[in-house]
Amino acid sequence: MWWLIAAVGLGIPLVVTAMPEFGMLAVGAVAGAVTAGLGGGTVPQFLVFVGVSVALIAVVRPLANRHRRQSPQLASGIDALKGKSATVLERVDGGVGGRIKLAGEIWSARALDGNQVYEPGQQVDVVEIEGATAVVI
User: Fold this and answer.
1) Can you tell me whether residue 106 is helix, strand or coil?
2) How far apart are CA 58 and CA 49, in angstroms?
3) DSSP readout, 18-32?
4) What is the pTM of this model?
5) Which domain holds residue 82?
6) How confident is the model over 20-49, as a mean pLDDT?
């Protein structure tokens, strides 16, 4: 019973401070309660508590930190258009530029390489958006 009280006691700071380590210690306390329920003595209960808590902190915390550092995978706005394919509607070159159909809309476009020319009907890839102009290859 004391282990369950400890688990609840460790769960309160988890909710208040949002520190996941308290949750891992609470899970360790629940594991200690299970050990006590299975007839384990005081020493095995503490060993299970410490072992489960340390194992969770050692495994889950680095995974959570790595996940937190990753940037979101969902791109929106003009960032979502980078890397998309488009169809050339009017001749596109590195100088004057031309027009492409990108994501159902007509965009001004210019070639990334100033010497490259794309004719109507060709497929191009958008590498960047500069203002209202798509830069294509």
Assistant:
1) strand
2) 14
3) --HHHHHHHHHHHHH
4) 0.49
5) 77-136
6) 93
Q: How far apart are CA 111 and CA 23, in angstroms?
A: 54
Q: Give pLDDT tens digits for 62-116.
A: 888 888 887 767 778 888 899 999 999 999 988 788 999 998 999 999 999 888 9
Phi, psi of 36 (to 5 degrees): -65, -40
For residues 96 and 118, what is the distance between their CA atoms, to the nearest angstrom? 12
Tell me the pairing of strands 123-130 and 85-90: antiparallel
- Cβ pair 84, 128 in contact under 8 A: no
Other C-beta atoms lying within 10 Å of the C-beta of residue 86: 24
List C-alpha distances in Å: 51 to 42, 84, 129: 14, 50, 53
Could you say which of 69, 96, 115 is where a domain stops?
A: 69
